[in-house]
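Researcher: We plan to redesign the surface later, but first we want a full-length starting point. Tokens attached.
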């Protein structure tokens, strides 16, 4: 399979619970690769195994062609990790959080200081250099965590819910930084609850449920394969369903809404109005959320 990360029939169990169920995937150099799924799907467990902090039960998992079981120290030295929880040291300023963290990688003091200054600028926190952590907003803390993850010039970034809890402005700023890092050659693996985030950022992704991979591919390929280019939303009623059944279209029912999948939205909308008396018809582009709903039958929530 090859790649920066390579997993074959990877399995993780906790007693009778199978958290990751014999999955195979690979992540290539320079990719932004995403894991999507509801809570309990196995995403964070996979991240912990890649980070060499949770041992696999069976199967194989290599990072940089190194086995996670036998070479954890070498792998960890090449990783940058942004955890889901905020675990910055409250006793230090922004600058001190970065320079003290650099000591884990045996980065010389002067070099660590230079990197910290550069990274604070990169995440637009230079004005908060000497501010204690408790004075930062949630968005600033996420940006500082990203800066900390980069202090050792990692070859692979592991991001667990990188924009969790952020407002739209903070989320877009993180997206901008991640795209910049990828353009510089970084390989990035992320989990996210935000389907728009995955659709915008990821070159490839997997959708998981119950420890298994349901599908894998690029966002656009998955959208095209499972729902088509466009969706028409119509109010759910028996006459509308009876009418749709006479038309050459695919549709899904979600409560009081019927979603019609089509590559010809204008023609189908015209036919709906002429034949089905649908009331309101709303046309939009298909999204990754539509794929998720089709595959799992539920909305992805935090």
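Model: Full-length starting sequence:
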């Amino acid at each position: 399979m090859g790649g920066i990360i390579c997993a074959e029939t990877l399995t993780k169990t906790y007693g009778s619970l199978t958290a990751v169920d014999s999955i195979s995937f690979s992540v290539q150099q320079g990719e932004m690769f995403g894991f999507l799924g509801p809570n309990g799907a196995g995403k964070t467990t996979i991240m912990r195994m890649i980070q060499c902090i949770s041992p696999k039960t069976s199967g194989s998992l290599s990072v940089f062609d190194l086995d996670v079981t036998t070479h954890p120290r070498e792998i960890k030295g090449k990783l940058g990790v942004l955890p889901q929880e905020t675990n910055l040291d409250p006793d230090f300023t922004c600058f001190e959080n970065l320079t003290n963290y650099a000591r884990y990688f045996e980065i010389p003091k002067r070099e660590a200081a230079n990197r910290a200054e550069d990274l604070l600028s990169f995440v637009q926190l230079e004005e908060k250099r000497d501010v204690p952590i408790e004075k930062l907003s949630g968005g600033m803390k996420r940006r500082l965590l990203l800066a900390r993850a980069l202090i050792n010039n990692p070859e692979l970034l592991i991001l667990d819910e990188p924009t969790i809890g952020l407002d739209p402005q903070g989320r877009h700023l993180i997206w901008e930084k991640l795209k910049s890092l990828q353009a510089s050659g970084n390989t990035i693996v992320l989990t996210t609850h935000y389907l728009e985030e995955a659709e915008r950022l990821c070159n490839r992704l997997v959708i998981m449920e119950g420890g298994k991979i349901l599908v894998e591919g690029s966002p656009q390929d998955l959208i095209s394969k499972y729902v088509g280019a466009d969706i028409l939303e119509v109010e759910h009623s028996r006459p509308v369903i009876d009418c749709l059944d006479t038309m050459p279209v695919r549709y899904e029912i979600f409560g009081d809404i019927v979603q019609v999948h089509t590559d010809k939205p204008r023609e189908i909308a015209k036919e709906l109005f002429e034949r089905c008396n649908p009331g309101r018809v709303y046309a939009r582009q298909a999204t990754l959320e539509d794929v998720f709903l089709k595959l799992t039958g539920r909305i992805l929530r935090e």
